[in-house]
Every structure is written in structure tokens, then in C-alpha cells.
């Protein structure tokens, strides 16, 4: 029957070859289609595709997308395929994918741009955000402005989207930690931050700069400290 096609559409290993099946699945969820024969059907992911009334729901479809994406990344190492699958779900308005999609976007940058080639989604999940920020900047020497614009600021924006107000706290915490041994990174970052009106607004910028200077434990950073304070807007 027609619903058999929907269930069969879940059993694939290459999401790019099954776009139509996935779209049909979500269309069925949005329209609350019956599962064939009134029997609970379970895909190869182990996620039940039917509720007690044998109806697909957007929440069930969302769970399937998330589980399949985790399997693609964790079991097969197909991070790009996992990302593509979640982006496809987002385009079809599948709910509750934002958090996992954000994590995969961060993982993609860490693996391909920051040199963390063995990093996994599970390892990323247990890391503190400030440690993720440090990894994003780890190989930025000589090109810190580009790293900040292309990788760090988007990561901070994703953190802000997940938890309002955390972006400035996270950035300030990272800069103060880096400042304990060198003021170079705080200087570069705060210079860039001055051009972004929505980062470290008002007194937060000055407070962060002063705390960075006081956090520095090296006695050879006077010139850098002076440059940092001089870079602040009057």
C-alpha cells in the first residue's frame, strides 16, 4: 500500500539518494497519515513511526532525523551526510533540529578547519563551550582575524541562539583565560569586537579589557596592554 512506501523510505544509507522518500515521510507526518494496516511500524533506526493511534507526528519524524544523523556521524563517519540530512529536514520545517544541527556545524569547523580530525559529536557534547572556543582559535596564529570572522563569531551566534545572553559571557571568559599568559589574542579580538555593535556592548567591553589586563601574569606585556586599552573607543 502507499504507506508501505513511507516506511520503506526510512531504510536507506545515503540520504542524498532518498530525498523524495524523506519529503514524502514528512508530508505524511504533516498530514497525519495512517501507518499501513494499523500496525506499529519500526524503522531500522529503532524509532517507532506510529503513535498509539497509528499516526505519524512531526515529533516522531524529528526523532528519526536526529537519530539517523547521529548514526551517520557516529557509526559511519559521514558527518557531511548527517549535516545534509538535517538541513533537508530544516528546509521541510521538521521541528527540534536546531540544536543538533548547530553541534554538527561546529564539529565540521573543528574537523576541517581547526585540525581536530578525530573529534566526534559525542566528544564535542561533553566539552565546555569555552574549550570549544579555544580549539577554534588554536591554529589561528597569523590569520586570527579571518578565524574570528569565519568561525568564532558564527559559533558565538549559535551559542546565543541556543541560550540568550551567553555570547558575551563566553567571549569574555575565553579572553580572560587567554590573557593569563598573553594579551595578544585579547588585543586582536577586542579590536575586531569594537566594529560589532552587538558584541560586548557598553561597559561590558571596557570591563572585559580591564579584566584581561589584570589577569595577565607575564611582566613583558606592558606594550600590548597599552595597545589594548588604546584600542577601546573613547
Automatic annotation (TrEMBL):
Boundaries of every Sec39 domain copy = 52-160
Question: Mind listing the UniProt keywords for this protein, alphabetically?
Answer: Endoplasmic reticulum, Protein transport, Transport
Coiled-coil positions:
none
Which GO cellular component does the record give, naming just one? Answer: Dsl1/NZR complex
Q: Name one Pfam family in it.
A: Sec39
| Record flagged with keyword Glycosyltransferase | no
Q: Name one GO molecular function term.
A: SNARE binding
* InterPro entries in the record: Sec39_domain
Q: Which GO terms describe its biological process?
A: protein transport; retrograde vesicle-mediated transport, Golgi to endoplasmic reticulum
Q: Where in the cell is it found?
A: Endoplasmic reticulum
List, alphabetically, the PANTHER family matched: NBAS SUBUNIT OF NRZ TETHERING COMPLEX, NEUROBLASTOMA-AMPLIFIED SEQUENCE
Q: What is this protein called?
A: Neuroblastoma-amplified sequence-like
Taxon lineage? Eukaryota, Metazoa, Ecdysozoa, Arthropoda, Crustacea
Amino acid at each position: 500500500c502507499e504507506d508501505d512506501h513511507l516506511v520503506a523510505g526510512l531504510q536507506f544509507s545515503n540520504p542524498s539518494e532518498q530525498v523524495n522518500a524523506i519529503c514524502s515521510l514528512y508530508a505524511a507526518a504533516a498530514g497525519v497519515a495512517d501507518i499501513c494496516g494499523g500496525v506499529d511500524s519500526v524503522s531500522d533506526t529503532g524509532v517507532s513511526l506510529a503513535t498509539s493511534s497509528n499516526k505519524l507526528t512531526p515529533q516522531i519524524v524529528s526523532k528519526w532525523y536526529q537519530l539517523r544523523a547521529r548514526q551517520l556521524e557516529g557509526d559511519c563517519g559521514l558527518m557531511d551526510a548527517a549535516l545534509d540530512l538535517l538541513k533537508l529536514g530544516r528546509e521541510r520545517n521538521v521541528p527540534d533540529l536546531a540544536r543538533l544541527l548547530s553541534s554538527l556545524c561546529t564539529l565540521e569547523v573543528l574537523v576541517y578547519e581547526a585540525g581536530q580530525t578525530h573529534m566526534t559529536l559525542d566528544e564535542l557534547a561533553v566539552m565546555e563551550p569555552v574549550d570549544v572556543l579555544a580549539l577554534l582559535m588554536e591554529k589561528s596564529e597569523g590569520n586570527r582575524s579571518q578565524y574570528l570572522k569565519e568561525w568564532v563569531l558564527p559559533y558565538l551566534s549559535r551559542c546565543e541562539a541556543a541560550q540568550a545572553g551567553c555570547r558575551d559571557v563566553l567571549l569574555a571568559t575565553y579572553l580572560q583565560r587567554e590573557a593569563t599568559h598573553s594579551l595578544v589574542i585579547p588585543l586582536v579580538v577586542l579590536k575586531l569586537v569594537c566594529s560589532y555593535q552587538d558584541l560586548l556592548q557598553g561597559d561590558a567591553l571596557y570591563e572585559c579589557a580591564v579584566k584581561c589586563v589584570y589577569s595577565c601574569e607575564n611582566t613583558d606585556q606592558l606594550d600590548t596592554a597599552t595597545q589594548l586599552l588604546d584600542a577601546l573607543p573613547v
